[in-house]
Amino acid sequence: MSEPQYKRILLKISGEALAGEASRGLDFGVIGEVCEVIKECTQMGVQVGIVVGGGNFWRGVKDGAGRMERTRADHMGMMATTLNCLALADVLEQMGVEVRVQTAIEMRAIAEPYIRSRAIRHLEKGRVVIFGCGTGNPFFSTDTAAVLRAAEIDADIILLAKNIDGVYSADPNKDPNAVKYDFISYDDVLAQHLQVMDFTATSLSMDNKIPVLLFALKDPKNILRAVMGEQIGTIVKEEK
């Protein structure tokens, strides 16, 4: 069997992806499939950090718009990510995988506070580390949190598992002529206003030279394919 392409990864999973077809709540069938693949990665010696979105429960900027103060709405979104973190952790532990949940907002009764050195130590011991509450600050997305944590733990790549199979020149649901890219530079993503991640996240990954691979989570095995270096989705990095 070939060797993994990456030693340490930061996997970003959208909350909506964990909801399956329902788009809200948790689909434990989907979560189980995702966790099985994560377990396979750890068995190969890959160190796995995970950032999870919370959109299957609450999207602060969207769900609270016009009805709530933005900061409080974003704090609710951070709580939503914690629900997903605990669900992932529980399923992984049932599979015999060692897990630690760390949150950017302290909630010591259910998770460790985020401490960079401790997170790295867990990874080195083969534990999966799940990072909750985004960056801990309002006005920042969980995509930005994923890039921040990837930079802090010195991840080799960010695996962006979403509900779309790559980066397109336009919305493929609206434009039948939209072209899917195998590779695109950070500069082109920003210049063309492509929705890979929000601009803050893209700029942060560019500044820290962390490649981002976007692919569809519809087939959870894509996580393993990405780790093994197979050509899937779209990779965003510096010019070749």
Which features would summarize this protein structure in a list?
240 residues; alpha/beta; Carbamate kinase; two-stranded antiparallel sheet; 11 strands; 38% helix
Number of helices: 9
* The CATH H-level homologous superfamily: Acetylglutamate kinase-like
The tally of structural domains comes to 1
Poorly predicted runs: none
Beta content: 15-25%
**What global shape is seen?**
globular
Please report the first level of CATH classification, the CATH class: Alpha Beta
Mean pLDDT, nearest integer?
92
Count of strand segments: 11
* H/E element order: EHHEHHEEHEHEEEEHHEHE
Name the structural class: alpha/beta
User: What's the alpha carbon Rg, rounded to whole Å?
Assistant: 17 Å
Helicity, as a percent range: 25-40%
Structural account:
There is one protein chain. The protein is α/β, with parallel strands linked by helices. It has a single domain (8-156, 164-178, 187-193, 222-237), classed as Acetylglutamate kinase-like (Carbamate kinase), CATH 3.40.1160. It has helices at residues 15-18, 28-43, 60-63, 70-94, 116-124, 142-153, 186-191, 199-207, 221-227; strands at 8-13, 47-52, 99-103, 112-113, 128-132, 157-162, 167-168, 180-181, 183-185, 212-216, 234-237. A nine-stranded mixed beta sheet has the order 4-3-5-2-1-6-10-11-9, with helices on both faces. The mean pLDDT is 92.
